[in-house]
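pasting DUF932 domain-containing protein for the record, 392 residues
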Amino acid sequence: MTQQFAERATNVAPTGARNAELSDLVRILEDQQHRKLDVIAPAAALRFREGNVHVEGVESLITEDGVTEVDGIYRPTAVADEGIADKLRIPLAYLRRMRTDNVPLLDENVNAWLGQEPERRFMLRAFRGENGPGMPPAEGVARALLSDSYKLMDNFDMLLAALDGVQQSGHPTRVTGCDLTDRRMYVRVESEAVAIQARALLRGYRSPFDGRSGDELPMVSAGFVITNSEVGAGAYTITPRAVIQVCRNGLTMAKDVMRAVHLGGKQDEGVVSWSGQTQRKTLELITCKTADAVRTFLSREYVEAKVSEMEAAASKTLAEPTKTIEHVTKTLSIGTEAKDMILAHFIRGGQMTAGGVMQAVTSTAQTLTDADQAAALEALAVPALTAAAAHG
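structre below
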């Protein structure tokens, strides 16, 4: 399995992985846990200089582990810029243009709006930079600017709770791939012990990757994908996912998703520390919900019902496949580059039906290097099937 890892800088926690092993994801998340800094700060304590967030005048946190310094310089990610634009009601396209073309104007705009409501409070999620002993504090990373009532549900904790739930469900499973971006964590889980034949769904289909035939390997496995966002880009979710074994295409069934949102109460100013009791209760709930979801999504009855639903639409023969793909991609707001890739995968797949369009969408998703884009495209596979069957 290919792996890609990304770091913002050599002194900041790694922030990305694509198609990684579970052990690699755990290692990255553990490192991030040591670098995280979450603080509730008033607008008066935040300033933009040279396009970076400067935190000034926030009290340090003193614990038995030492002193956590908050004041410092934090370089915003694209996600953080989106949060800043949203919270200060600055058009995002304008903010991005200022960052590219006129950083002094960006500083002036952000600081002016922060100054309008100096007592307004935000949660700043960041990674602390680290330098060696005796050196000045390193520049950190501003990951997100959020509401002061945002509930922390961190990837590492949620992953462990979810895996505990998977274990409690009693189903034999394996993690087939993990992605981590600035926005979300994705963990794909599959149970080949729960697999059914889907001959009608895969009739005439061949893998665009190695040419293997769906007629010879017509199996679909049960699975699901665990997602979480630490930066306000979505709830903790478990979404059922069917895996086409001949090509490893994944089909997520978004309408059956289980979710837990990041909503909590107002928090005091200063460094945020999630209390042990609150954390324990939240994670126990996540574990129980995960176990329940797994028992449902990994049942043979559930998979058979979903495959049956898809087969009814997938058999529709397309009179003009190119026009149908044009219609489907336009209807689902899929861009031109992805549309061209889908058409190429459709032709290689050799299945001239609405089901072939669905397969082309999911196989294209596998090839994307951006994990967020890949997940978003995979989620459109079933809607693409419906749209293709209706268009004919």
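Residues 7-13 have pLDDT under 50 and may be disordered.
The radius of gyration is 23 Å.
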